[in-house]
Amino acid sequence: MKHQIFLKNYLLLIFIGIAVVLQVIILNKHSTQGDELTTLSRQIAEINKENDIISEKIASLSAVTTIGEKARNYGLTSSVRVLSLTASLPLAANLGLSQ
Amino acid sequence: MDRRLSVIFIFFFICFSLILVKLFFLQVISFENLAGLAEKQRSSELTLAASRGRIFASDGSPLVINKKTYGVFLEPKNISDKEKVINTLAKELDIPSASISSKLNNTSFLWLPIAHQIEEDKKEEIALYKLPGVGFIDETKRYYPEASMAAHVLGFVGKSSAGDDQGYFGLEGYYDQQLRGRVGRLTQEIDPAGNPILTGSRQAVPAEDGRDLKLYLDKTIQFIAEKNLKDGIERYGAAGGTVVVMDPKTGGILAMASYPSYDPADFREFPQEFYKNPAASGSYEPGSTFKVLVMASAINEGKVKSDTVMDENGPVEIGGYTINTWNQKYHGKITMREVLDYSSNVGMVFVEKQMAKDLFLRYIESLGFGQSTGIDLQEETSPELRPKNKWYEIDYATASFGQGIAVTPLQMVRAVAAIANGGKLMEPHMVKEIKLPNGTSISVAPKVVKQVFKPEITSVLTEMMVSAVDNGETRRLKPAGFRIAGKTGTAQIPIAGHYDSEKTITSFVGFAPVENPRFVMLVTLREPTASPWGSETAAPIFFAIARELFSYLGISP
Predict the structure, then answer these.
(1) Strand partners, B509
(2) Most A CBs within 10 Å: which of B188, B228, B483, B516, as the mutation test of the A interface?
């Protein structure tokens, strides 16, 4: 009986000791991971910056004014000649109100 | 022996007493001060910047976005070679070296800003010099991919009196609070290297970026409007002009162009009088374009019909004034339809006389004149209507053909849109949707202010306006095969109590296609020198834009 109680206490002590050691290891690891976070934050900022630059370039190249200028340089012109084949009815005639 | 022990005891007693006193001083007297220093050393407080909201056209393409820039600062204490820093920065930043030198000579500052909003490539060039004491801070500035397109609609971002970014004019001014967002704050424990301690204390209030705006404005229609307006102003020697294109069903503004204009990226280089949007805040007398509204009002009340006949046999005398037709031609017995075809001032006086004075004024107010339209542009204003007791006989007569009454182009196009859409006066809007940073959107629903005309009456007016285009002075200008409802306008400019004998404001208002109007448009030109007439200046611009819109919108004849 005494032997069993002694064994339980002994195991409990070992368990507590392991838990304390683990806590110290984990906390120590987390406490020193700040530089990784800083590095990651810097990388994210760098990538965001590159994305912004690319977005800017896309916006600039797809601007109507840019496309219009390029079209002119290539000799493209706007052609809006339309031929009418049929005439449509007056609007008010449909409602029987034309006079 | 006892004496030596006593001396040693007293010596150690004094030493330990001194230590106790010092500890008392550090831990009790200086406690708050030292605790504050320790807190400062192990925690950092960062302001998290919020990005200003962006503005997009109807197709989602950006009109205004944010561009990353940098501010250059100096830390005088860390500068080892002053001459090198001054000469390098003066050359790279194009700043007088005397200006940098005078700032550095002021030794009371630990941190000196030298330049703001420099581009990325310039920052990299300066960084290559690796100058101690020279640093950079992140900044942003507005970037306009379409350059100065829609400048009056967008407005610009300047600085408030407190030095913060603030929007002025247009959308930047109207939606400034929604666009600017809210800065955040991050307080966290840091290690001696400045890295955050993950298991330490951390308090974060996240930044909230500004809301993005999506407009009704169509980039291509805006481009077409600006190009043709600019060409027209040059061709007809005008001092300026506006084009407003609106969707009559929703009140959404598809395009709004005005000249002279400015570049919002360099607004300081332009006169301040260019900043206000003439389409929303510039008043003018609408002239004959107003006739369609008066005619619609009279027909709506049953006072006249499109085939009511009047005798246009000569000028009309009103209160000692003589009212003529614009070309001194009189056609005898004409219908109301022909009154618009011939743009007869005498005919319009007849129409006005069929309406009671109160009724006439009530329709002018119902059509939104004399009050702001409610458009979401900061600088919108409205010219006031004359008080009711100041309207005399001649005022009613001249108002019937659009003189003696001041309106804005926006008010005019909105009122005519009520003919195009079955009689509803719509509240005009630039913004269709507001996008929140969390991804959700708030749609701005079209708003009907009131039903002004009966739907069947608008059909009659539409046909009369089609006839005015087909049989009036612009019959040779309109694209063949298309039915366009429209009206020309030529108004004299009032100066110091009388009308200028030579200068005019010309205009053309219309909508198409009449069966299902996709757009209503108003073109105004200020003081064209090539010709004073709307049919010869504003109308050709209108039809040139309409021609391109038919092609772009896929509208068949």
Answers:
(1) B487, B522
(2) B483
Whether residue A99 and residue B305 make contact (CB cut-off 8 A), yes or no, is yes
Task: Determine the average pLDDT of the residues in B219-228.
Answer: 96
Peptide bond into B315 cis (omega under 30): no
pLDDT-derived band at A87, boundaries 50, 70, 90? low
How far is it, in rounded angstroms, from Cα B391 to Cα B399? 10
Are B195 and B202 in contact by the 8 Å Cβ rule? The answer is no
Does the pLDDT at position B501 exceed 70?
A: yes
Tens-digit pLDDT profile for residues A43-79? 998 898 888 889 888 999 999 988 888 888 888 876 6
Inter-chain residue contact B146 with A64, CB threshold 8 Å:
yes
Helices B291-300 and B455-471 cross at an angle (nearest 10°) of 140
Helix (H) or strand (E) holding B35: helix B31-42
- Residue A48: closest CA among chain B residues belongs to which residue? B68
* H-run or E-run covering B71: strand B62-74
The minimal CB distance from A34 to the residues B198, B460, B463 is found for B198
d(CA B14, CA B310): 122
The whole-number pLDDT of residue B1 equals: 67
pLDDT at A96 over 90: no
* Interface residue ranges in chain A relative to chain B, Cβ cutoff 8 Å: 27, 30-35, 37-38, 49, 52-53, 55-56, 59-60, 62-65, 68, 78, 80, 82-85, 87-88, 90-95, 97-99
Residues of A in contact with B483 (CB under 8 A): 88, 91
Do the chains contact at B480 and A64, CB–CB below 8 Å? no
Per-residue H/E/C for B464-497: HHHHHHHHCCCCCCCCCCCCCEEEEEEEEEEECC
- Report the C-alpha gap between A41 and B199 in whole angstroms: 17
Q: Would you mind telling me the total number of residues written for chain B in this entry?
A: 557
Whether residues B481 and A84 touch (CB distance < 8 A) is answered with: yes
Q: What mean pLDDT, rounded, does chain B reach? A: 91
How far apart, in Å, do the first and last CA atoms of chain A sit? 118
Q: b/e string for B481-491 if b means 16 or more Cβ within 10 A?
A: ebbbbbbbbbb
Which residue in A has a C-alpha nearest to residue B191's C-alpha?
Answer: A34
Mutate to test the interface with A, among B122, B186, B199 (most CBs of A within 10 A): B199
| Percentage of residues in chain B having pLDDT higher than 70 | 100
Report pTM: 0.84
Instruction: Report the pLDDT value the prediction gives residue A98, as an integer from 0 to 100.
Output: 34
Q: Using one digit for the tens of pLDDT, what is the confidence trace for B458-475? A: 999 999 999 999 988 888
Work out the number of other CB atoms within 10 angstroms of the CB of residue B288. Answer: 28
Residues in chain B within 8 Å Cβ distance of A99: 305-307, 337
- Distance from C-alpha of B204 to C-alpha of B371, rounded to nearest angstrom: 47
Q: Are B73 and B111 in contact (CB under 8 A)?
A: yes
The distance in angstroms from the start CA to the end CA of chain B is 127
Nearest to B148 by CA among B272, B260, B67, B281: B260
Per the CB < 8 A criterion, the answer to whether B67 and B198 are in contact is no
* Substitution target from A30, A62, A82 for chain B, most B beta carbons within 10 A: A82
